[in-house]
Write a structure and sequence with these properties.
187 residues; mainly alpha; two-stranded antiparallel ribbon; 6 helices
Length: 187
C-alpha cells in the first residue's frame, strides 16, 4: 500500500489557520492547500496569508513557473530552489555549470507560435492548449505539494513543457511564413 504518502486533500479538507498557527482540524474549507501537520511545513505555511496565496506564490510560481522559466527563459543554477534568469543581469551563480541564458527567445517564439497556431488552426491549437493546461495547472492542483520538497519536481510538468515546445515549433513556422510574405511583398 501507499500509506507512507498520506492523504492529500483536493477540493475540501482541513487547512492551516494563521490565527492559531496550526492546522485546524475542527472545520473543513474549500480548496485546502496548507494541510500538512508536519511542524516544518506549518512554519512555512505561516509565511502565506491564505491557501490561495500559498497556491499562487508557492505551488504555481515556485513549483511550476520557475521550472517553466528554466526551460524557456534561462536557469540560474542547479542548486536546490535556484531561480530563473534571462541573462540580462548578473547573478550570483554565473559560474555554475547549469547556468544558462536564453534571453526570453524560446519563450517569445513560443508565445508567437501559440498566436500563430490559434490564428491558422484554432481546433488543433485548442488541443495543444488543453495538453498545456492539464499537464501544468491541473497537475499543480492535483498534486497539492507541501513546501520544502526533498528534490526538484520539474519532471511532473514535462507534458506542459512539451506542449509549449510544440508552440515554439509553430513559432518557427510562423516566422518563416512572415519572412516569405515580406519577401513576396518587397518584389
Amino acid at each position: 500500500e501507499r500509506e507512507q504518502y498520506g492523504q492529500t486533500p483536493l477540493l475540501t479538507g482541513h487547512t492551516f489557520d494563521n490565527s492559531q498557527g496550526r492546522v485546524n482540524r475542527d472545520q473543513e474549507t474549500f480548496f485546502p492547500r496548507r494541510y500538512s501537520t508536519s511542524p516544518q511545513h506549518m512554519r512555512q505555511y505561516a509565511q502565506y496569508s491564505s491557501d490561495l496565496d500559498f497556491f499562487l506564490r508557492y505551488q504555481v510560481n515556485h513549483m511550476y513557473w520557475r521550472y517553466f522559466a528554466w526551460n524557456f527563459i534561462g536557469r540560474d543554477a542547479d542548486i536546490q530552489d535556484a531561480g530563473w534568469q534571462a541573462g540580462f543581469t548578473d547573478t550570483e551563480h554565473e559560474d555554475n555549470p547549469a547556468h544558462n541564458s536564453y534571453f526570453y527567445i524560446p519563450f517569445l517564439i513560443g508565445l508567437f507560435g501559440m498566436l500563430f497556431h490559434f490564428q491558422n488552426d484554432w481546433k488543433r491549437a485548442l488541443t495543444v492548449l488543453a495538453l498545456f493546461v492539464f499537464t501544468g495547472l491541473a497537475i499543480i492542483f492535483y498534486l497539492n505539494q507541501t513546501p520544502m520538497q526533498p528534490r526538484e519536481r520539474d519532471y511532473a510538468y514535462v507534458g506542459s513543457f512539451f506542449a509549449f515546445a510544440i508552440w515554439i515549433g509553430m513559432g518557427g513556422i510562423g516566422l518563416v511564413e512572415l519572412v516569405k510574405d515580406y519577401l513576396k511583398s518587397s518584389k
